[in-house]
């Protein structure tokens, strides 16, 4: 029997089945194809594990970029009204192997001439000091910076152990497909560093890019009181942190915005209510092994 006749015969046999049997077969086939599609989607923990691995390569790429960082810090009174605001803008670049923060603006205005001169002199001094370093001193400075960054990467790896994750949805964010994951503290998790002590006390939601496995967005909230940091700072429940990153030159993810809203107690008596909003812009490609030259006054 030819292949065409076999197919026709099979169709004829199926069409002769009772309607409810045909319905069951269609449902069964739908379930099979749904199962195959689901099998191609990683589970939540695998997504997070791969995202942490992807962050290492992204870190290496990000070292080739310089940008402006604007931080606005508002202190609030007991009624939530702003008592004071401080805004600073920094130009951040890699200077001979480690970052250099140069203050370029205050309260969204250029620095006064005298302050701008001081900042330029500080930059010139740093350039001169680093140019005179011995190979041993330079290696030591860069190693200390890399050690701090490695500590941050280790803290991020610990996130995979600190939470139970669940895929909540698949969405589009800024035109890119993302997984949306909910994160709840994992019972029995024990922090291994000072900075990760906060993890058992927060819950969060992650938006992870489905192509690059990078964290595009995060929202987290403190759910019970926790002491944190070098000083005796006790964060109250309800403190929130969020960050958003952006794809630059289709090769690297860089920070776009970080927001923190917190109520905390410093020591035994002082109560702090703070909102901090940090934004990043003017991303520029900058070779990591380039040397920075201070701008000359006009």
Report on this structure:
With 298 residues, the chain is α+β, with helices and mostly antiparallel strands. Among the domains are: 3-31; 44-92 and 162-285, no CATH class. 34% of the residues lie in helices and 40% in strands. The chain contains 5 helices and 13 strands. The chain has helices spanning 3-15, 19-39, 44-62, 113-131, 135-162; strands spanning 65-76, 82-95, 98-106, 109-110, 163-173, 176-185, 202-209, 215-222, 226-228, 233-235, 240-248, 252-266, 270-285. Strands 1, 2, 3, 4, 5, 6, 7, 8, 9, 10, 11, 12 and 13 form a 13-stranded antiparallel beta sheet that branches. Helix 3 runs antiparallel to helix 5. The longest helix is centred in the middle third of the chain and has 28 residues, at 135-162. The protein starts with a helix and ends in a 13-residue tail after the last strand. The model is unreliable at 2-17, 27-39 and 288-293 (pLDDT under 50).
Quick tags:
disordered N terminus; 5 helices; 298 residues; globular
SSE order, as H and E?
A: HHHEEEEHHEEEEEEEEE
Overall mean pLDDT:
81
Strand content: 35-45%
The termini sit apart by 91 Å
What is the general shape? globular
Based on helices, strands and strand pairing, what is the structural class? alpha+beta
* Helix percent band: 25-40%
List the quaternary state of the chains.
single chain
Number of strands: 13
Uncertain runs are 2-17, 27-39, 288-293
Q: State the major sheet.
A: 13 strands, antiparallel
């Amino acid at each position: 029997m030819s292949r065409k006749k076999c197919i026709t015969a099979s169709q004829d046999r199926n069409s002769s089945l009772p309607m409810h049997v045909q319905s069951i077969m269609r449902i069964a086939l739908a379930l099979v194809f749904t199962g195959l599609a689901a099998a191609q989607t990683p589970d939540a923990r695998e997504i997070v594990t791969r995202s942490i691995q992807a962050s290492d390569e992204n870190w290496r790429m990000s070292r080739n970029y310089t940008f402006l960082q604007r931080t606005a810090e508002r202190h609030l009174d007991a009624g939530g009204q702003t008592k004071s605001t401080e805004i600073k803008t920094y130009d951040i670049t890699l200077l001979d192997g480690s970052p250099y923060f140069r203050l370029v603006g205050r309260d969204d205005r250029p620095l006064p001439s005298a302050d701008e001169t001081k900042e330029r002199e500080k930059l010139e001094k740093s350039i001169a000091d680093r140019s005179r370093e011995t190979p041993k001193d330079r290696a030591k400075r860069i190693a200390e910076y890399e050690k701090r960054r490695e500590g941050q990467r280790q803290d991020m790896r610990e996130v995979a152990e600190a939470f139970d994750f669940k895929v909540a949805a698949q969405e589009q964010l800024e035109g890119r497909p993302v997984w949306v994951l909910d994160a709840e503290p994992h019972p029995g998790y024990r922090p291994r560093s000072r900075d990760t002590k906060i993890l058992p006390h927060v819950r969060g939601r992650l938006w992870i890019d489905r192509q690059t496995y990078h964290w595009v967005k995060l929202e987290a909230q403190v759910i019970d009181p926790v002491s944190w940091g070098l000083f005796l700072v006790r964060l109250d429940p309800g403190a929130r942190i969020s960050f958003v990153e952006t794809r630059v030159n289709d090769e690297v993810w860089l920070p776009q915005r970080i927001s923190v809203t917190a109520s905390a107690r410093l020591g035994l008596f002082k109560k702090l209510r703070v909102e901090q909003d940090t934004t990043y812009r003017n991303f520029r490609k900058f070779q990591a092994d380039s040397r920075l030259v201070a701008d000359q006054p006009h």
